[in-house]
Amino acid sequence: MFTRKSAEWFCASACVALAAAGCAAQRSADAPQAAYGGGKLNLGTAPGSAEMARYFSYPADGRALPPGSGTYADGAKVYQAKCVACHGAKLEGTKLGDKLIGGRGTLVNNSPAKAPVKTVESYWPYATTLFDYVKRAMPFNAPGSLSDQELYAVVAYILGEANIVAKNEVINASTLPKVQMPNRNGFVSPDPRPDVP
Amino acid sequence: MMQRLPKRDDKTRRRIEAMVEAEARYLAARARRDRNSDAVGAPQRLTSRRTFLGAAMAAVGTGSMLPKIVHAKAPPGAVERPVPSDPTKEQGVPTNDDGGYGSRSQFETESRWRFGTPTKESSWTMTPLDSGMGIITPSGLHFERHHGGIAVIDPARHSLVVHGMVERPKKYSMANIRRFPSISRTMFIECSGNGLTEWSKPTLKTVQGTHGLTSTSEWTGVPLALLLKESGLKPGAKWVLAEGADAAVMTRSIPLDKCLDDAFIAYGQNGEAIRPEQGYPIRLVLPGWEGNTHIKWLRRLEVSDVPFMTREETSKYTDLMPNGIARQFTFVMEAKSVITFPSGDMRLPGPGFYEVTGLGWSGRGRITRLEVSTDGGKTWADAHLQGPVLPICHTRFRFPWYWDGKPAVLQSRATDETGYVQPTLKQLVAVRGLNGPIGSVYHLNAIQSWAVAADGRVSNVHA
To answer: Of A60, A111, A132, which has the smallest distance from its Cβ to B434's Cβ?
Structure first.
């Protein structure tokens, strides 16, 4: 896809187009900024390491996953304390929280009378997503409050209840990305549209 | 009412029923406020919004010295003021009495209504397209979708970090962001869940319910290409993760080519700072792409060689097809249109002339043609487009119609500059299927049908 070189080409060509067309379409490419080379605006500062330590995001290959580990047994305690109120004792979901397990075999369906059951077990393609999401947004009443140790544990518990990993398996930065989710191959991209009519 | 769905689909059923209930509550509240609907010949909502003004004036009479009428609580965004019996016989409200920021008339009642989700923090509201004029959505009526409530952010303490596969990681204050060369762009943002209740049968009554998750504003901000250029991209960079500073810490992975094309970081909306519920102090704007990718309360951009496979782009905003395979990264909002007048829950007072009007829009560019059918799609005629027609923007169309008083089915059909023609629901379902009562959930852009009955009542139908 794009490289720095193509970005420079992009800005330069946008400038030429702008001059030629007067003011063409409403596009950010119209912006009269091609003269500003990379770094020349001299705005902003270099973020400090303490600042950067606040941030995280974990692609499916597991890079940058934090230290720590957890087991099904530890996770059961975390789940009972932090998750059960919304997601239910059997991870079946409540009015407040999504159902987390079950639903395998329901995705192939063309009936308006029954809905597919999309859960972590049946639908989510990557286990890393579960760790990332719970770390950023859960529990709903105290988002971002679980330690990495608690996170690995509760992920181990959910994956264990979903029969995706064995209940004696340790989940950590090295094992989490290797978890094979049941619907790992259930997604296609790029976008095939326009597909209708 | 909703037919009960099998037990297995409790969640879906609750979701749809909650939406029906939320719309009904909104309509009932308006009806209470507007209890005295008139008969002056103007088209009415079945649950009318015409205010008690008529009753108040009738009670007072004209030119009398009777006391001023004190109204019930003002609608949201309005200030309640006493109404003189004759505004030419006494001074009006003192200048700048509003403290320097204006409000709308106390007689205007349209508002967003909230879908009845279990929490008010993860929820959404719908824009009242039925009462909209022109192409701009008032900022206070722009639809909302929040996953962790509306973040309250002091811009003096907020920053935007650009890092990852860049030569120079950067942290920008909001003052820094405003020093960049800027652009303005008038364009629509639409939630890809717009219309999710309408896949298998007509469900909500009003156009606000069926189509209210789209809105148009003039957005002002900094081209994202400039920010990325300022940091310098490393070879191999292909994706950018955008992250919000709300309680959901919302994240989406955006292909780098979009970021270098027309993406921008917006701090302005309709001539002022963007509203808190739109992501104050800054949000990402990706022209023509599904609303969820326009990350609000933006705090971080991480350049990467791979997408991050976040929860929103795997488990939520993906389109499950009948064969069990889900489409991922379906970003573009395809061409769509809807008649906003007459539309569901209105009543035409009788045969005669009406100006049919509505909106068309496309995430791929300009609307080039809007057609209207009054016979359920058997015949079509071109509608007039209000200029200027902007790319990736609500486009207002108008169509003169003489209603003969017989039952009719009104439809509109959009064509965009790529030649794409808005499909019928049948065509859409033939390809995407009906995997559950709300189909593949997202990206429903089918032609909408409004039935006009002989008594003038307008209702949502599948035709």
So the answer is: A111
Domains in chain A and their CATH numbers? 1-38 (no CATH), 69-178 (1.10.760.10)
Query: Is residue B69, in this structure, part of any structural domain at all?
Result: no
CA distance B364 to chain A (A): 11
Does the beta-carbon distance from A196 to B263 stay under 8 Å? Answer: no
B199 close to A (CB below 8 A)? yes
pLDDT in the model for residue B54:
37
pLDDT bracket for residue B22 (50, 70, 90): confident
Statement to judge: residues B406 and B379 lie in one domain: yes
From chain A, the residues in CB contact with B311 under 8 A are 129, 132-133, 137
Q: Residue B269 pLDDT > 80, yes or no? A: yes
Position of tokens 């994240």? B251
pLDDT tens sequence across A112-137: 999 999 999 999 999 999 999 999 99
- Closest CA relative to residue A37, chosen from A57, A72, A77, A7: A7
Contacts of B263 in chain A (CB under 8 A): 28
What confidence category does residue B45 fall into, taking pLDDT thresholds of 50, 70 and 90? low
Question: Do B12 and A115 count as a contact with CB atoms less than 8 A apart?
Answer: yes
* CA–CA dist B11, A114 (Å, integer): 11
Q: What are the tens digits of pLDDT across the range B221-243?
A: 999 999 999 999 999 999 999 99
Same domain? B456 vs B340: yes
| pLDDT at residue B235, rounded to an integer | 97
Q: How far is it, in rounded angstroms, from Cα B291 to Cα B286?
A: 8
Which residue in chain B is spatially nearest to A55 when comparing CA positions?
B300
Nearest to B266 by CA among B280, B255, B256, B247: B280
What is the structure's pLDDT at B111?
Answer: 96
Query: A111 contacts in B (CB within 8 Å)?
Result: 434-436
CB pairs under 8 A between A and B: 269
Q: Does B447 touch chain A (CB under 8 A)?
A: no
Query: Can you read off the two tokens belonging to residue B260?
Result: 């270098």
- Domain holding B222: CATH number? 3.90.420.10
Among B293, B327, B361, residue at a domain's last position: B327
C-alpha neighbours within 13 Å on the C-beta side of residue B134: 9
Inform me whether the C-beta atom of residue B21 falls under 8 Å from chain A C-beta atoms. Answer: no
Q: Which domain holds residue B258?
A: 144-327
pLDDT digits 0-9 by tens, A46-61? 999 999 999 999 999 9
Residues B317, B414 within the same domain: no
d(CA B431, CA A17): 39
pLDDT, one tens digit per residue, over B150-195 is 999 999 999 999 999 999 999 999 999 999 999 999 999 999 999 9
How many domains, chain B?
Answer: 2
Judge if B175 and B301 occupy the same domain.
yes
Cα separation, A1 vs B233, whole angstroms: 12
